Every structure is written in structure tokens, then in C-alpha cells.
Amino acid sequence: MECQTLPEALTAIMKQRGWTQKQLGRELGVSQAWISRVCNGVADTGLARARELLARVGWEVRFTPSLEDPVERREFLAAAASVVFVPSATSSNPYLDPDYVRALADSLARGRYELGGLPLAARALGHVKQIDHLERPSLGYELQSAASDLLYQASIALYDAGMLPQSEHAGMIALDLAHHAEDASARARAYDALSRVSLYRSDPLRAVKHAQRGLRIPDLPASRLSSLHMRLGRALACMKGNQAEAREALDRALDTSGLSPFAEAALGGDVAIGLSRLGHYNQADRLLHEAANAMGQWSPLFQAQYLGRQAQTAIVADKPTLAANYMQSLTRALPFISSARVNKRAKEIFDRSAKWDRISDIRIAREHLKSMLSPEHPLA
């Protein structure tokens, strides 16, 4: 028995078991009124919540691709997936199903793009625990590759949530799985994640080594090569005496052709961060501006990240009026996401802009920024 919607699934469960809405609500731990609203199409819930509720009565959520052609899995506007609600196979571990595992990876990616990493941290840790308990060397290539994909996404979600040791642990498992799967692209992706985490932990040398290992993998797609060159350039930019090598790596990343609009916008914004570190503020500001504008249609998280970087760049470049404008834009973006990294950046912007507090526009922007930061991460 398969159902295409949650109302269909709830109706089928009641019919199958002879339950009333009140009895189903009691089994699910929700009210009869909620069951009624969902069945009538008045109320809805997210997939994660639907999965949790249906598991209580032995049903599960499965995902099947709606397009047959291969697509870039990591893009926010990748092909949609159809959702199927079915009774659970009690003898099977769903984490042994490659399609299910990839669907979990896609769900984490979309959730992070929309919300940020903090709301996903518990779920990401749960996925890491489930995969870590499997006998990894004995899994088939397809499942190992899918599990590497999921652990990569878990690593990035935990990174955005500020849980760096856990993020690095997930990245190392993703790398091990990719190695056993003989999946070159997945290995490069794992090195990309590990380089990202190392740099955020103020270890640029380790970040450089991870990026270089990724770049030594042959026959990588252009999108992966460009990202690794960007990671290498940003790490080198944080090390004294490596400015020329850093600029070369960042330029190689920008010279990549054939990227999708999403990947191109994200790459430009990420390269701009390295350029700002090298003191190329005008080019960095232009690329960040383009990235922030483009990301508005895809990812609130990415847009907020680049707005924050614009404000930081303006502060370093000693442009208070520009900084105030970017701070106001960041303030408007903050309520839509929950990201430890963005919160940390907002606090840094608040602190570093204090030198201009006598300027009316800056003072107002700082007041607005302080009022809109997440209560869990208040400004001092």
C-alpha cells in the first residue's frame, strides 16, 4: 500500500486498523483536531515531522526521483522528488537502502540552504550515529557512496551549527566511505568539507593539505575542481608569504566554465572572501554583491552569509556608509535563518563597527543588528 500525501496516509492507516481520528491521534501523540485538519487539507507538517509521527504506527516516508536524467545533486533547485508514505518493513534497516540514504542527504542540504545548520544539528548527529554503526567495509559500493553523500551533508550542517569536532568526525567518515566506494568525486567532496572545517578552526595549513589532496584526485568534474581551488586559495590567503599562490588558486577557481547559475554564484561569493583577505576589496565587494543578489532566489542562508561578508569587507576597507547599508541588509535576513556561523559573524560586525558609533547611520544599523540576532546567541 502506497500513499502520495500525508492525508491519504492517515486515512489509509485508520481504514487499515479500524481506528477513529481520536484513536489515531492518541497513537501519534497529537490531537484529534489536528488529525482532522490534516485530513481535510487545512493543516500540514514538514517531512521530518511526518516521518517521526508515522514511524510510531509502523509507516515510513520514501522518496523517489521525479526525473530520470542525472542532475547536480547538491544544488538547491535540483530536480524535485516525489514522496511516498508506505508501511515500514520492520525487518529492514532503512539506512541500508541507498535511495533512502540519498534522499536524507538531499533533505539535509535543502534544510540547510533554507534554514541554516542549527535546526538540523540533532538530525545530522543522528545520521552520523546510524552510519557509524554500520560495518562500512562490507557495504556495497552504491550504499557506501550514498552514505558518504549523507555524511558530507551532515558535516556541513554541523559546521554551520558551530559543532566543529563533530563536523570533522562526519567528514572523516564521509572520506572513508568514499574511499571504499572508489568514488573519486565523493572523496574530493569530503576533502572539500574537511578543508572548510580546518580553516574555520584556524588551522590553515591543515586546510591547505586537505584541498591539495582533493586536487590530486584525477578526472574530477569542473564544479568540484573549482571548489577545491577556492578552498586552497582561501587557506593560503590566511598564511603569511603565500599571497601570490593564494591569488593564483582563486583565479583558477573563477576561470572555471560550465557551472550552473547556482554554483557560479556560490563560487563567486566564496572566492570573494579570499580576495578580501588578500586586500582586493573592490573586486571582493563586487563578487559578494552579485552572489548575495543571486542567492536570494535559492538560499536565505547563503544570502545572509554573503551580506555579512560584505559588511565585514566594508569595515576592513574603512567604508562606514557602505558598511551601514550592508548591516541593515544583514539585519533583515537574520530572522529567516538559524546559523551559528552567521550569528558569530554578526557579533564580529557589531564589535568591529563600534569605532564608528558616533556616525548616525552606523549607530542605527548596530542597534537594529543587535535587536535581530538570535536570542540563543546574543550580542554582548
Q: Could you characterize what this model shows?
A:
This protein is mainly α and about 375 residues long. Among the domains are: about 80 residues, 434 Repressor (Amino-terminal Domain) (Orthogonal Bundle); about 100 residues, no CATH class. The chain has 18 helices and two strands. It has a two-stranded antiparallel sheet. Helix 7 packs antiparallel against helix 8, helix 9 runs parallel beside helix 11 and helix 10 runs antiparallel to helix 11. The radius of gyration is 23 Å and the shape is globular. The termini are far apart.
In short:
With 380 residues, the protein is mainly alpha-helical. The chain has helices spanning 6-17, 21-28, 32-39, 47-55, 98-115, 121-132, 141-160, 164-181, 184-200, 204-215, 222-237, 243-254, 261-277, 281-295, 300-316, 320-333, 340-352, 360-372; strands at residues 59-65, 81-87. Among the domains are: 6-90, Orthogonal Bundle (434 Repressor (Amino-terminal Domain)), CATH 1.10.260.40; 278-380, no CATH class.
